[in-house]
Amino acid sequence: MRSAGVPFSAVPAAVAESDDDTLGLTKLVATNARAKALEVAARYPDAVVLGADTLVWLGGRALGKPADHNEARRMLRELSGQTHEVATAVHLVRMEPRQQVEFHEITRVRFRPLGEDVIEEYLATVDVLDKAGAYALQENGEMLVETVEGSRSNVVGLPLERTMAALAQNFGW
């Protein structure tokens, strides 16, 4: 949002995120984005609130944030040489007057085949513990990623193009 020149304040939502893979990718991220946005909007009813949730999806299951470096290693090994999806749901809401819109973006990312040396080098240079799927496209992503089909900003965590369009169309930004 900063890169788009939009003034904002980051306010953490006091909600537990769902990790129920049985919901499917788009419903899971939408559920989490909506819960975050509505919880914060209840505290700031006049503000336009953006809640977002991003997940890496491989083989019918979500790869969230790794608990430790061993789990991060396992995730990177699983992603090695594979194509996965990155989905972000965005929920925009203002409580007074009530207005809301929700959408999701899916990007396909193909990883290079990764040797153990590349995995170890990546883990040594990037803080992966707060990254879904244990990687960040914007932080030495070229070490891991072969191709990106779709929105690159979505993989970073917010589909900026669609978010700006939704803000303009629905909230007059």
In brief:
This protein is α+β, with helices and mostly antiparallel strands and 173 residues long.
Can you put this structure into words, describing what you see?
By secondary structure, the protein is an alpha+beta fold. It has a single domain, classed as Maf protein. Helix content is 33%, strand content 25%. It is built from 5 helices and 5 strands; from the N terminus they run αββαββαβαα. The protein has helices at residues 25-43, 69-79, 116-125, 152-156, 160-171, and strands spanning 49-58, 61-63, 83-94, 99-111, 145-149. A 5-stranded antiparallel sheet has the order 2-1-3-4-5. β1 and β2 (61-63) form a beta hairpin. α2 packs across α3 (116-125). The two termini are 12 Å apart.
Q: Give average pLDDT, whole number.
A: 94
Helix fraction, binned, reads 25-40%
Give a quick account of the main beta sheet: strands, pairing sense, barrel closure. Answer: 5 strands, antiparallel
Within the CATH hierarchy, at the fold level, what is the topology?
Answer: Maf protein
Q: Which stretches of 5+ consecutive residues score pLDDT under 50?
A: none
Query: What is the topology, as strand order, of the major beta sheet?
Result: 2-1-3-4-5
Oligomer: single chain
The CATH architecture can be named as Alpha-Beta Complex
